[in-house]
Amino acid sequence: MPLAAAVVAQPAAEPAAGDPLAAARRALAADDPESAIALLDPFLRRDPRHAPALLERSTARCMLDELDACKRDLDQAIRADPTLRQAWLNRSAIAIHEQRYDDALADLREAERLDPAAADNALNLGAVELLRGDLPTATAHFRRHLDREPGSAEAWYLVASNYALSGYAALAVQHLERAVALDERSRVRARTDANFAELASHRGFQQLLATNSWVPPPGALAAERLFRTRYAGPDSPIVVAILNTLQLSGATLDPRVELTPDWALFWSAFRIQLVRNADDSTTLRLTAPPGLFTPSSWESRTASFFREIDTQLLRLELAAERGVGAPPP
Q1: Which of 63, 134, 156, 220 has CB atoms 3.0–4.6 Å from 179's, for a disulfide?
Q2: Would you state the pLDDT for residue 87?
Q3: Is the overall model pTM greater than 0.70, yes or no?
Q4: What is the CATH number of domain 221-322?
Q5: Where are the beta strands (DSSP E) in the chain?
């Protein structure tokens, strides 16, 4: 069911291996609510007031769109154990889905009372206040959340996504910009996040997505090379050469690749940036955080990387001349 962007479910403590409750949770994690219910029904026949089991069965029933049964199990779980914070969070999520925002706030306040130090308290309250249309109160909650984690890109991103979801474009862009400054991969995430879909034509959002303003930290290691080949999007030989080189090296590649008309970014053991130049050449910049490599190992590694890029580009050029597809790396 669609929920406010910030209402975050906290994982329940994992019971001992062999416990049917643990098996039910594994089934839910595998998106198999039917199996979870089959495990929980006999468990609850033996112990009908077992609050964690009621909570898990309510989750399974919600996943099956059996909303009335989901709510019955959830209310029974709360009656059996009013200290079960996750049950209050889940009930607030249902109230949000049904646009009962006052009820959602009441449930979230109870969740906060049960754990005043929980990181999601202010974020959840702010999300619901936005849905109620109370921007000043929502902003106060968000400020409290950000004051708690001022250096967290995730915190700034979640606040931005809530503003975007509620139509506050300028505030969304402002907070997303801070998230990107803390972790530039937040920009990649926002490109495909449905919460930002309504901002697609917003000038500030477009500018943020088009701008690569990343600055290396002091002491970062850097290497740069000019290639006489044109970067023109995902099918460009230089992009294929980079991907082949990483594959051959066995390096882990972050799936969040970012490709724009003027530049591209890849993240592996180091940051890889392509920049399209006016003369149809491409600048390839490699950057690593301080301390990740010794200067000598960095020099050796980047030289080897550039040599393999040359090799891959030559292979692609020869394949193009023969009129065949790109060869395997």
Answers
A1: 156
A2: 97
A3: yes
A4: 3.30.310
A5: 221-227, 258-259, 263-267, 271-276, 282-288
